[in-house]
Amino acid sequence: MESEKPRRRLPVLNAKDDDAPEERPAWHWVVLGAAATLLVWLLLASLVNSAIRGASPFIALVANALALGLSAALAGAMIGRFGTKAGIGHATAAGAITAAFGCALALKSMTASAATAALTFVLAIAIAAAGAAAGHRLTRRRVRA
After folding, report:
1. Is this prediction's pTM over 0.85?
2. b/e string for 24-36 if b means 16 or more Cβ within 10 A?
């Protein structure tokens, strides 16, 4: 038998990569979630409104409320999945901020009374916060101790 060359073994290191980016602070996820909610809400609202053109105002109201809730749920799911430091309060804050922003934009075009505008404001915030909380609960990462 020929003399075999000894195999060269390479070390396997499981050290953390020093170039890895830092975790985002929790408040960053509020801003990212609000932006994601707004973008998805605009997309869903345009699809819903084009699909139900000519429908009764009640159907339009319910469909747009569902679009807001679904967009907030998707953003809450994003926060729950990727925002390891962000909790359910951060997700609900993102949804509430987006709903408040949307209501503030629509305030000038509202012809309803102040009480109706206030009720719309409160309901939109509640729908978005509930959707974001539900999305966060579905996808949150559990920290192992």
Report:
1. no
2. eebeebbebbbeb
